[in-house]
Automatic annotation (TrEMBL):
GO terms for cellular component: cytoplasm. Keywords: Amino-acid biosynthesis, Cytoplasm, NADP, Oxidoreductase, Proline biosynthesis. The gene is proC. HAMAP family: P5C_reductase. It comes from Segetibacter aerophilus. Its EC number is 1.5.1.2. This is Pyrroline-5-carboxylate reductase. NADP(+) binds at I8, G9, G10, G11, N12, L13, A69, V70, K71, P72.
Length: 266
């Protein structure tokens, strides 16, 4: 399989994917093209050797794998504009767009080329994404290639399409939820004596370490909590107060509100 990749929609996620792709040398910048209407903001990628364009058909002709990374309401227009260039025997389409289903894509392109959906998160720019993939009509070779591609930029799993909305909430929105959790820690840290910069460092590294404990030990959070909570100690006092104030409940309610928004209103 040839490995030229075009990204249509060079915004937050599109540029993060481009950065992640070229970061580890997995693909040469010369084999990546990224588009948006106002290409000015793509200058840093151009300086690193990535091809930039405001012509989506040029990108569709360039890439064997075409990643669609525009906003949901822009998908139809973009797919219609490249429809004539799409080649069933060559192209693989990958959409990272929230709430647009594979059947929606087929109904627009009216061609039977392999269609994948990928749901990464913005940590893809530093090769620490959690990416969920699903596909229709992908060959085993194409599935393996795309899993390998996204594995270069974090962890990847293939799931059923019916779980893609849930993957969006847990994996992609999850980056923002985690940032709010860290921000609240920073605010609290400042109140108990640290400067903002020291509080930020302590909060971020502590959350990174906590996540690594789960990933490396393959443990349940409560097992790790048990190792921290000294009987009659300060950790359990704080944790219990957080629960009295609805900590877990508010997170679960937020998560399900995001899910409801995707499944009923996007
Ligand atoms: N941000 C995230 O964490 C995640 C986002 N997603 C999904 O990824 C998609 C993109 O999100 P995000 O990157 O945040 O959004 P952005 O608005 O940052 O990026 C979309 C980009 O598309 C470009 N664009 C718009 N119209 C066209 C067009 N006709 N041709 C080419 N480019 C075009 C815009 O630039 P210009 O106006 O210059 O053309 C813009 O830079 C969304 O569908 C979102 O649901 C999925 C997972 C995570
Ligand atoms: O907020 C959104 O709609 C998109 C989907 C996942 C992350 N950002």
């Amino acid at each position: 399989m040839s490995n030229k990749i075009s990204i249509i929609g060079g915004g937050n996620l599109g540029t993060a994917i481009a950065e992640g792709l070229i970061k580890n040398g997995f693909i040469s910048p010369a084999n990546v093209m990224i588009t948006k209407r106002n290409v000015h903001t793509l200058q840093p990628l151009k300086e690193r050797g990535v091809n930039i364009s405001n012509d989506n058909n040029e990108a569709a002709a360039f890439g064997d794998i075409i990643i669609i990374a525009v906003k949901p309401f822009q998908v139809q227009e973009v797919l219609l504009s490249i429809k004539a260039t799409l080649d069933e025997s060559r192209h693989v389409l990958v959409s990272v767009v929230t709430g647009i289903y594979i059947k929606d894509i087929y109904s627009i392109i009216e061609k039977q080329l392999p269609v994948f959906r990928a749901m990464p998160n913005t940590a893809i720019a530093i090769s620490e994404s959690m990416t969920c993939l699903c596909n229709q009509n992908g060959t085993p070779e194409q599935i393996r290639y795309l899993e390998q591609t996204f594995d270069q930029m974090g962890k990847t799993i293939t799931i059923d399409e019916k779980l893609m909305d849930a993957a969006t909430v847990l994996g992609a929105c999850g980056t923002a939820y985690a940032m709010r959790y860290i921000r609240a820690n920073i605010q609290g840290g400042i109140e108990i004596g640290f400067s903002a910069s020291v509080a930020s460092l302590i909060a971020a590294q502590t959350v990174k370490g906590a996540a690594e404990l789960l990933l490396r030990n393959n443990s349940h959070p409560e097992q790790e909590i048990d190792k921290v909570t000294t009987p009659k100690g300060c950790t359990i006092a704080g944790l219990n107060e957080m629960e009295h104030q609805g900590f877990s409940s508010s997170l679960i309610k937020g998560l399900t509100a995001s899910y409801k928004k995707i499944t009923t209103d996007m």
